[in-house]
Amino acid sequence: MKKVILTGDRPTGKLHLGHFVGSLKNRVELQNSGEYDMFIMIADQQALTDNARNPAKVRENVLEVALDYLAVGLDPTKTTLFIQSQIPALYELTIHYQNLVNLGRLQRNPTIKTEIRERGFENSVPVGFLTYPIAQAADITAFNANLVPVGEDQLPILEQDREIVRTFNSLYGDVLTEPEAMLATDEKSRRLPGINGIDEKMSKSLNNGIYLSDDTATVREKVMQMYTDPDHVHIDDPGRVEGNVVFYYLDVFAPNDPRVAEMKEHYQRGGLGDVTVKKYLIDVLEGILSPIREKRAYYETRPDEVREILRAGSEKANVVANETLKKVRDAVGINYFDKEK
Ligand code: TRP
């Protein structure tokens, strides 16, 4: 049997180049290897845990994220693409797992602690937000996922999910599959900086991103604004490559390109202007983004087709999740009216 991969994204914004090199590209490779059974979830329910007062934002971004998925080459004939909120079994699994986790353990989760601080939730954290690691255990176990590709920030969540699985299995028998986190790409790709400087990760909330849906003119403009070396004032001045966002991007998007090695040397020696390097980066990015943009445009004009892909994917996901739920109910012993036990 093939190993199962499950992962997902919160639909709170369009996806950007950081998502592309940090996860999407890798998912497409995993998909095309044919070695896995892959489920990718648009985690709208999780997005609502800190956006309950703005459900329209979540709703709109479900479609945007779906378009981004299809645009990068996730293929609904190979990968099950679905919407989290449409899988009722996930809610019930969450309730069962809630009984296995104590409050202090959730409050000590380093990711949750950071996210509470970032959102100013210190004095009033929504219960659903605090407990999203438990719901995430439901997401993962419902599909019997062996591998969960995630960013580094999600490792403490995965660790807590693994604990939930072990607790459940030790109490009720060997029912749930214990997942493993998968950090698939190199460190540089996982921490793609935004356009304003190397210390800031590209982020939906910081407005420092290049989006998969940006048009050519926008990409050009953003690259032209990119942080380089503030001391490289005149073309003849020697420039710094470390901490220079343009060269960081070239390392990530044009790895092993001899032209980049040459430009680095020239830049450090002096005599190479920022604009020349930026123009090269624009060409490199356009090479990557233009096929993505084309595919996105195709699906943008066919929203019914996209909706049908998500509907069919959710239907398929429901079959699998319901099987897991049945096993969980049987294991806990709350299957009073089932004919065949
Ligand atoms: N928490 C993940 C994030 O913020 C999104 C997510 C929800 C997820 N459910 C998941 C990721 C299950 C992996 C598996 O990126």
Strands across the major sheet, in which order? 1-2-3
Low-confidence runs: none
Order of helix and strand elements from N to C terminus: EHEHHEHHHHHEHEHHHHHH
Q: What structural category characterises the helix and strand content?
A: mainly alpha
Computed CA radius of gyration, to the nearest angstrom: 22 Å
Shape: elongated
> Helical element count?
15
Q: Taking all residues together, what is the mean pLDDT?
A: 96
Q: What distance separates the N and C termini? A: 25 Å
**Helix percent band:** 55-70%
Strand-residue proportion: 5-15%
What compounds are bound to the protein?
Answer: tryptophan
- Tell me how many strands there are: 5
Report on the structure:
There is one protein chain. Helix 1 (17-33) links the parallel strand 1 and strand 2. The protein has helices at residues 17-33, 44-48, 55-72, 88-98, 103-108, 110-118, 127-130, 132-142, 155-172, 187-190, 216-224, 245-253, 258-269, 274-300, 303-332; strands at residues 3-9, 36-42, 79-83, 147-149, 180-182. The model has no long low-confidence stretch (mean pLDDT 96). With 341 residues, the chain is mainly alpha-helical. A 3-stranded parallel sheet has the order 1-2-3. The structure holds tryptophan. The site of tryptophan has 13 residues, from strand 1 and helix 8.
Brief rundown of the structure:
With 341 residues, the chain is mainly alpha-helical. The protein has 15 helices and five strands.
Topology:
Elements (H helix, E strand, L loop, with lengths): L2 E7 L7 H17 L2 E7 L1 H5 L6 H18 L6 E5 L4 H11 L4 H6 L1 H9 L8 H4 L1 H11 L4 E3 L5 H18 L7 E3 L4 H4 L25 H9 L20 H9 L4 H12 L4 H27 L2 H30 L9
Parallel strand pairs: 1-2, 2-3, 4-5
Helix pairs in contact: 3-14, 4-8, 4-15, 8-9, 11-14, 12-14
The site of tryptophan has 13 residues, from β1 and α8.
